[in-house]
Amino acid sequence: MGPLAGVRIIDLTSVMMGPYATMILGDYGADVIKVESPDGDVMRHAAPMRHPGMGAMYLQGNRNKRSIALDLKKASGRAVLLRLAAAADVFVHNVRPAAMARLKLGASDLLAANPRIVYASLHGFGETGPYAGRPAYDDLIQGLTALPALTGRITGEPRYSPATMADRIVGLNAVHAILAALFHR
User: Fold this and answer.
1) Choice among 31, 89, 109, 167 that is catalytic
2) Annotated catalytic, 89?
3) Domain ranges in the chain?
């Protein structure tokens, strides 16, 4: 139990940024349902791991969550997701907007299933501008912000932080935005 007990979150995120955000919401007591493709989140295979498909970062970022595997490219998988969303408070994804549009899972699609749902779309470069639609990973974002160069001024050699710092910072900000949206609703 916690302050978010009774709040249901559909988590269509992978790698670290999105799972970190929904992990915190789960830590606060939300009922988080992680939706994975039949192949699973790629972080399942990131070492170190004691058992195949159970990487340590995957296990940490997905604690306090229930999970379901759905093939969202099939009508039946999409229908199950929309049924879950109809009874949820929040839908979080970190899939590029063009892919969500192809899947017919954009904000308007989810809001048609549930007009009260908070739709949180987490992606690196926004929906407009020269980098819109490009994939974004932690090390790429760190490079674009010149963090490795700043580190190089101290160490003498540029290098990125191995602590997935950008993903965690964005994940924390996503938590704040989701909480504010829930409070506003």
Assistant:
1) 167
2) no
3) 8-134
